[in-house]
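Sample entry (320 residues):
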Amino acid sequence: MLTRSDEQVERETPTRRRRRGAWVAIGVSVALVSGAAFLYGRQAVSMLTHRKGAPTRTEAVPPFLAGARPTLRIAAVGDVGEGEEEEWQTAYAMHMLEGGNPPYDALLLLGDNVYPSGDPSRLDATVFHPFGIVLESGARLFAILGNHDAGPRATEQMHDLGMPGPWWATTLDDVLLIGLDSNSLADPDQLAFLEDTLRAASEPWRIVAIHESPYSAGYQGSNITVRDEYAPLFARYGVQLVLSGHDHDYQRSTPIDGVTYVITGAGGRTRGTGDDWFTAASWSVLSYVDLNVFPDHLLLRAIEQDGRMFDQVRIDRSAG
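Predicted structure, serialized as tokens:
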């Protein structure tokens, strides 16, 4: 059952017919100074050495054995909104990985779905055509807004992607998946929605999607408002994993108050990245995240466009 606020008008378009699932809804540039860290607006930018290139080691992704397969599979990626060849290759990598595994149950887009300004009329070019090969296998589409999606047509874009609003929550098997809008961090309704949803949660797995990460060593840097206002709620209510885009790279944090923060914003382009005190892995390479849910753990694997794995982490149910 889909629940919308009163202002959200139901409109049927070809793109919105892909909507499935059960929902609950309420409604910089920087100057580069090597070796320094400073505040710029909302963000703390880590200016450690930035690198751009493929990981130093990759390996083939083993298929899951019969009887040891995940109960839920999610493909997650952000910043795909160009609709160019690189994005199509990312979608094809998802499709090829499904060949030795169960198909994806969900495709999660982590914002900047349409460059440069979130025009919903371009969604076929930037989302539905490139990722059609994944959606047609049965994956449900979930999406959040990025900074390039903000503006007067943001609500329309969310509607056309089948979402009930700029922030939302849904349950997929044993997973509570929450989508937030990093363009509306000061909105008390969003913060209240997050806390109310997490406080009432009974699902053993709690995953949050927010475009701008509170912990990033990349070009864009950490969003300090998310770190100060939202991350304490993630920790307090047992969120195990937070997924973001915004930086065009792959980053994984060490667990921070029980929460692992992963950036996967290199679905269509890359930019140099770096290391900070919270960094466990950091690479600038076209890629996406393959997230597999088991009863007692999450298995997260970072996949290059050639289908090879360059990072993986197991997150046990006790985390968070």
